[in-house]
Amino acid sequence: MVSSLIGFIRFFELDVKQKKEYFGRDMTKKVVYNTNFDLYSSPAANWRDTILFHMAPNPPEPEQLPTCCREIVTEFSKEMLNLGDVLFQLLSEALGLRSNHLKEIGCLEGMDTAYNYYPVCPEPELTLGATQHTDTGFITVLAQDDIGGLQVLHRNRWVDVPPMSQGLVVNLGTLLQVMSNDKFTSVEHRVVLKGAEPRVSAISFFGIGYTLNTRLYGPVEELLSEDNPPKYKKTTIKDLVAHAYKQGLDGTSFLHHLKLMD
Ligand code: OGA
Ligand code: NI
């Protein structure tokens, strides 16, 4: 996995003129490179550059991908979709649903692959690579290099997620929390900056980029009963993402607007 990370770092090391071709803030484009996709809506900026590829349901043509990482992006995304298929089966079963359930309601339809690049920071204690947040979609699968810095909030304490050679991190997203009616909890996480070398991570977001999807998602009907009434209103991914962008610095849950009860 680490070797595939090294492959795409080449993109970030290209000169500005070459990278400029992909630069933009229109997140509906199939390939978008920028620093802080939410620069104008977030209360704080992240020390990070990202190139994002909308890989499912309608992937870019190969020639739309930067030549230096064309093969790697394609291969990585294919493997992630295969893995996503297995993960959604397991998660369906964990919820007590038929193994195809989450797939049948579209969890595997939309996937974005993102490559994050955290440059070396001269004053790392003054900033963060990624401020506290939860991921918006169904699940996120992440491969990080061996620099470290990813942390999860566990019982109000930040805990390191140490890099593991060949290991992947799977985060449950906010939308899956809503669908599970709080049986699953989406994880608060952040990235602190360390090391004298840039850090890179490769991520596949299932669901998040699917902002044109007007489907309503709420607690899965089959999970609800008199004892387990719905805790959330139904929402579209687009609406959820819009609220996520306004997420407070302290990570105050942007799920409040959907809550039917506490
Ligand atoms: C993200 C994220 C963590 C990382 O992009 O949502 O949490 O290790 N990234 O890059
Ligand atoms: Ni995240």
TrEMBL record:
Cited Pfam families = 2OG-FeII_Oxy
- Cited InterPro entries: IPNS-like_FE2OG_OXY, IPNS-like_sf, Oxoglu/Fe-dep_dioxygenase_dom
Q: Which GO terms describe its molecular function?
A: dioxygenase activity; metal ion binding
SUPFAM superfamilies recorded: Clavaminate synthase-like (SSF51197)
Q: Which UniProt keywords apply?
A: Iron, Metal-binding, Oxidoreductase
Keyword Iron-sulfur recorded: no
**Ranges where the Fe2OG dioxygenase domain occurs:** 107-208
| Superkingdom as given in the UniProt entry | Eukaryota
Similarity comment: Belongs to the iron/ascorbate-dependent oxidoreductase family.
Name it. Fe2OG dioxygenase domain-containing protein
Give the organism the record lists.
Linum tenue
The opening ranks of the lineage are: Eukaryota, Viridiplantae, Streptophyta, Embryophyta, Tracheophyta
